[in-house]
Amino acid sequence: MVGTRDDKDTVNRRGFLAVGVRAVCGAGLVALLAAVPAHRRAGAVALRPPGAVGEADFLAACVRCGLCVRDCPYDTLKLAEAGDGQPVGTPYFFARDIPCEMCEHIPCVVACPTGALDKGLTDIVEARMGTAVLVGHETCLNYLGLRCDVCYRVCPLIDHAITLERLHNERTGKHAMFIPVVHTDKCTGCGKCEKACVLDEAAIKVLPTQLAVGELGKHYRLGWKEKEKEGKGLIEGIIDLPDRMPDPPSIGPERLPGGGFKEFKP
Amino acid sequence: MSSPAYRPPARAAIEAKGWIGANKWLLIRRAAQLGFLALFLTGPLLGTWIAKGTLAASLTLGVLPLTDPLMALQSLLAGHVMETTALIGVAIVVAAYAVLGGRTFCSFVCPVNMVADLAVWLRRTLGIKEGLTVDRRLRLWLLAGVLIGSVASGAIVWEFVNPVTMLHRGLVYGGLFTWGAALATTAAVFLFDLGVARHGWCGHLCPVGAFYGLIGEKSVVRVTAVGRDACDNCMDCFTVCPERQVIAPALRGKDKGVGPVILSRDCTNCGRCIDVCTKDVFRFGTRFRNSPSDALGVGADAGPADTIARAS
Ligand code: SF4
Ligand code: SF4
Ligand code: SF4
Ligand code: SF4
Description:
The complex is a heterodimer.
Chain A: H1 8-38, H2 55-61, H3 67-71, E1 78-79, E2 91-92, H4 107-111, E3 131-134, H5 150-154, E4 162-169, E5 175-182, H6 192-196, E6 204-207, H7 209-212, H8 223-230
Antiparallel strand pairs in A: 1-2, 3-6, 4-5
Chain B: H1 11-22, H2 24-46, E1 51-53, E2 57-60, E3 64-67, H3 69-77, H4 84-100, H5 104-108, H6 112-126, H7 138-153, H8 163-173, H9 181-196, H10 200-205, H11 207-215, E4 221-224, H12 236-240, H13 247-251, H14 272-276, E5 283-286
Antiparallel strand pairs in B: 1-2, 2-3, 4-5
Helix pairs in contact in B: 2-8, 3-7, 6-9, 7-11, 8-9
C-alpha cells in the first residue's frame, strides 16, 4: 500500500487496531449467517396475490419489485420479510390481517410487469389465492349449535363459495346446526371469512389449496360417476341383487352365549 | 487525519484544486445515488409518485418501465418468459448502459456502492491492509453459477441473496429498519469489505456488477488518461480506484503504443481518478478517441516503443 512512512509505534498501534477490526468483522459475519435463518415467525399462512402462477413458476417469474403491493388499494399485500413464510421480498398477504377485497379491476395483476401475476385473470371470481377450510370443528360457534354465520355472511360469494348445511344437533337432541361448508370450486381464497371470524383464533382459515384439498390417486375412479357417464353399469351382465338391510331386532328374549335366555326366569 | 500514517489520497488534489474541485465527481455520484433513491421515496413518504417498484423492476411516472437485465435473464433461464412491459424495461436499461458504460450502474445508481465506499474509506482511515486476496474473475464464475443455478432450480436464484435489491427494497419499502434480511445482507457486505477483503464485494464477487460490466463491454463513455504525459506517479489514482487494475494499461500504455482510454469493462466510470489527480490527467471521453496520438502533448511520433514498460 501507499503512504506508510510512519514511526514504529504508530505502525504497531494501527496494526493492532486493524487486527481487532478484522476479528470483529469476521465474528459479525458468522453471527449474521447464523442469525438470519433463526429469525422465524410462526403462525399464519402467507397467501399469494390473485392470479399468482403456481409456486414453482412464481419464483421463476416474480422479481420482487413490489409493484403489486404499491397498487393494492387496501394495503392487503406485503413483501415478505425473513420469517414470514415466503421467500424474502415476494408478495403475500395474511388473511387475518388484511384480506383481499377482490377488486373488480384487479389492480395488483394489472401492475405486475413480469407475468408472475397472470394477466389472463380478468374476472376476480376466478382467482384462487387459497381455499378456506373450517378447521375449528370444536370451536366454531355454528358447530356448537349457535347461529353465528359471520363467515357465511361476509363471503363475497355467499351461497356459492360457502353455504350453511343443516345437521341434527345430537347434543340437544331437538335443534339443528347450520354448518358452514366451503365449496372449493368456487372459493377464491380472499380470506374475508377468516378475517371476520369472531373467535380469538379463527375457526375458518384460508390455506394454500394444495394443503386444503386432498387429491385422489390418479387411477381412482368413482364408480357412480363412471356409471352416470356411461349411462349403464360398467361391467356387462352383472346381476344387481336386492340390497339386504340389517336384521330387524328380534322380538323375543335374547339368547345368552352360555345357553338359556336373558331375563328369562323359569 | 491526525495519524501521521494516513495521507488521504485526495489531500494533494484538495490543495491544488480546492475541496469542491477534488471531490467533484464524488459529489455528483452521491447526488445521483441519493437522487435515484429519492425518486422511489417521494411516493411512500410524500404521496407523490415518481418511481414505483425497485431496481429489479420499476415504473416511472406511470409510463417508463425499467427492468434489471440479469433478473430477466435468470427468469428466462428458469423457464419464464416475461411480459412485454418487463421486456421493454430490459431493452431500455441495456441500451442505456451499453452507451454510458455498464458499471456506471455501480457508481451512480446502486445503493450498495455507498456501503462499499464507506467500508473502504474506513479501511484506509484505520490502516487495514489488503487482507484476503480474491481473484477478480471470481465474479464471472459466480455469475455463471447464478445462471446455471437458475436453469437447475427453475427459480431466479440470485434474488435469494442479492444485496443490491435487498438493500434497495429495504430502503424503499422500509424493511431495512426492521432487523430483517435487508439489514443482514447489507451488514454482511460491509463487514466483508471492511474486515476480509478490500473492495471485496463489488470488486470481486458481485455478479450484478459483473453482468453490467459485460453489457458495457463496448460502451462509448469512458474515462481517458489524455494527459498521461503529465503524470508524476503520485499513485493517488491507484489508491482511490475500486478497480485499480484498469488504470495502468491506459495511463502507462504510451511506451507500448496503447491509447489513453480505459477500456476495461471493470471500470465503474466513477471518475474518482479525475478528482484526485493534481495533473488533470484523466477526463471523461469516448472510446473512439483512443489512438496514442489522442493523448495530449504526444506527437505523431508515438508508436510501439522499444523501451520496456515501467513496472505497474
Ligand atoms: S384484488 Fe384488490 S384487494 Fe385483492 S390483492 Fe389485488 S389489489 Fe389488493
Ligand atoms: S408485481 Fe409481479 S413481479 Fe412484482 S412483486 Fe408483484 S408479483 Fe412479483
Ligand atoms: S375465502 Fe372465505 S370469504 Fe373468501 S371466497 Fe372463500 S369462503 Fe368466501
Ligand atoms: S458491483 Fe454490485 S453491489 Fe457493487 S456497485 Fe456494482 S452492482 Fe452494486
